[in-house]
Amino acid sequence: MIVPGTSRLGGVIGWPVAHSLSPRLHGHWLAEYGIDGAYVPLPVRPFALGSALEGLRDAGFRGVNVTVPHKEAAYAVAGICDQAAGLLGAANLLLFGDGGFEARNSDAEGLAASLMAELGAKGLDGANVVLLGAGGAARAAILACASLKANAVCVLNRSPRRAAILVEALRPRINIALASGGLDEWPRVAADALLLIHATPAGMKGAGAAPAAAPLVDVAALPAAAAVCDLVYNPLETPLLTAARARGLAIIDGLGMLLHQAAPAFEALYGVRPRVTLALRAELESVLRDKP
Asked: Are 276 and 246 in contact (CB under 8 A)?
């Protein structure tokens, strides 16, 4: 690939990063909108983040998307941040300026847009949500549910203490009811839930996560009108979504969140707000099918 000196430069940093779909995603938009730009994968070891960011800024990059394990560290090095990054304590986008780095986070915005696309204009208005996991993705999911006016979110985790810590950290800053517990509480909370969100990395190919042999919970406990969302996008249909489909429940895979969270980043890097289209989704689905 030959990149002219006039090109707008962006990329994604992570360790590992070879599995990331972001270069293909942003490359699609660069071609669609005829933008003189490049977007490249950038493998950066955790201890080298600071020097890598300085080097990329000096090389003319406008900014970079950030994936694991750098999201919290990227937020920490930023001088300013948007509201979502501040609430999450993590960045999925760093913009480079003469005065330093600006942290942004569009994960919650991306999930909210994906849920709206699947659930309709009413979204989660008044709904009870059960959330599996207590890490960064779970934090973003709580913000997304709050933005869609959910009634309550119950966070369940293998470690109830981690779930409780997450809830206590966000409760003063989120205007919806929050509760927490262990996975053993699933049968009790599932009966009133209209959405289950799986927000752990279990089963994600290519990111070092352990394969998911079986769902963490039994979807048979959910009402017939419930939907199941798995934030994992590779594979597109996880064991949890397979079980939900067999039960006749609505399913939402993680690819929608990936697509929608990328749109604000592309706009910040290249100056155009891109459209999330069926053609783009089909292209990425094809890439995922071809991945080992």
From this structure: no
Of 71, 122, 149, 291, catalytic:
71
Alpha-carbon distance of 255 to 67, in angstroms, equals 15
Give the chain's radius of gyration (CA, Å).
19
The pLDDT, as a whole number, for residue 212 is 54
Mean pLDDT in consecutive groups of 10 residues from the start of the chain, 292 residues: 75 94 97 97 96 96 96 96 95 94 98 94 89 96 96 97 97 95 97 96 65 82 97 93 96 97 98 97 93 69
Do the beta carbons of residue 268 and residue 96 sit within 8 Å? no
Q: Is 149 a catalytic site residue? A: no
Q: What pTM, to 2 d.p., does this model score?
A: 0.94
Beta strands 128-132 and 152-157: pairing type?
Answer: parallel
Match 């938009």 to its residue by tokens. Answer: 29
> Which among 278, 235, 265, 143 has a CA at the least distance from the CA of 197?
143
* Per-residue H/E/C for 210-258: CCCCCCCCCHHHCCCCCEEEECCCCCCCCHHHHHHHHHCCEEECCHHHH
> Which residues are CB-contacts of 181 (< 8 A; sequence separation ≥ 6)?
154, 155, 156, 160, 163, 189
Contacts of 122 (CB under 8 A, 6+ apart): none
